[in-house]
Amino acid sequence: MLLAAGLGTRMEPLTSLRAKPALPVLDRPLLHWTLEALAAAGVREVAINTHHLPATVRDAVGSGRRWGLRVTWSHERRILGTGGAPRRLRAFFGDEPCLLVNGDVFFRFDLRPLFARRERTGAPVVLGLVPNADPRRYSPVTMDRGRIRSIAGRPRPAQGRPWLFTGIHLIDPALLDRLPPGASDSVRDLYVPLLAEDARIEGVRLRGAWYDLGAPPLYLASQLDMIRTRAPGRARGCLLGRGAAVKHGARVSRSVVGRASVIEEGAVVEDSVLWEGSRVGRGSIVRRSIVAGAVVPAAAQVADAIVMPGRPARIHPLEAATR
């Protein structure tokens, strides 16, 4: 199940245009990368929940055939949370282990080690983890020889190396019956009580890229890091989408330029992300900014900003968007 129903309030104003899982990342909707990973792991059926701007999610996914997936939709008038959303679809999962994946992070993992760990240990829950470089920012998970002992210090503090829960987990769907109908949280309402009962929850390290896209500055910085470190299929330093045009005398560096975008003569674009169909006017300078399918007028200077569509374009300070 791809969890795609969040409001994305920390990503405003971008999420006034599209739901967070439908935002473009490296010139593709974020959830395309997730569906690609699910298909590579052998998944053939996927449920996707929606709430905020559901049409943008549906339009991004289409039929699912391009990934060989059959898609079931679950629209939530009231957000049910990471526990309540799969609980509502209990019948969809049947008796097979189900993979739950947050729709608001970018990752490039092989997901098969989660299935291998379950097969080897029989654990009803397997969490996908990566090293936690900042436990003050991301609640730490501790484990001992692969067995989870605490999540964010619950049910009780435990010593050990801090790990970060990626939002990817494999679960025996029978455990969903422990949750009441309605809204709930998978960690708080299911995993922490299971740990308190000394139930076996395993953790497995996933290797590859993982990025938190929680707010516009992270959304920008993450994509710039991806192209700098040669994200799969991308050239170092810059990404130009199909049909993007860089006119004579214009310069683009360390940026993602979405398909069908136009950089006019003499313009400069640096350290920025442009959605598809964006336009930077003649002689304009855009630095450390996000252009969300908008038109930057000629001779403008934009820095550390979000440029939203409009006549004229609306400009928001990049950092202020997180407050």
Give the neighbour order of strands across the main sheet.
5-4-1-6-11-8-12
Number of helical segments with 4 or more residues: 7
* CATH-assigned homologous superfamily of the largest domain: Spore Coat Polysaccharide Biosynthesis Protein SpsA, Chain A
Q: So what's the overall shape?
A: elongated
**Mean residue pLDDT:** 95
Runs with pLDDT <50, length 5+? none
Please bin the fraction of helical residues.
10-25%
Question: Would you state the CATH class of the largest domain?
Answer: Alpha Beta
Please report the total strand number as a whole number: 27
Number of domains: 2
- The name of the CATH architecture of the largest domain is Alpha-Beta Complex
Notes on the structure:
By secondary structure, the chain is an alpha/beta fold. The chain has two domains: 2-211, Spore Coat Polysaccharide Biosynthesis Protein SpsA, Chain A (Alpha-Beta Complex); 216-322, UDP N-Acetylglucosamine Acyltransferase, domain 1 (3 Solenoid). Helices cover 20% and strands 31% of the residues. It has seven helices and 27 strands. It has helices spanning 30-40, 54-61, 81-88, 90-93, 112-121, 186-196, 216-228, and strands spanning 2-3, 24-25, 28-29, 45-50, 70-75, 98-102, 105-108, 125-131, 141-144, 147-151, 163-171, 201-205, 209-212, 238-240, 245-246, 251-253, 255-257, 262-263, 268-270, 273-274, 279-280, 285-287, 290-291, 295-296, 301-303, 305-308, 314-317. The strands form seven sheets. It has a seven-stranded mixed beta sheet with strand order 5-4-1-6-11-8-12, sandwiched between helices. The protein has a six-stranded mixed beta sheet with strand order 14-17-20-23-26-27. The chain has a four-stranded parallel beta sheet with strand order 15-18-21-24, with no helix packed on it. Helix 2 (54-61) links the parallel strand 4 and strand 5. It is elongated, with a radius of gyration of 21 Å. The mean pLDDT is 95.
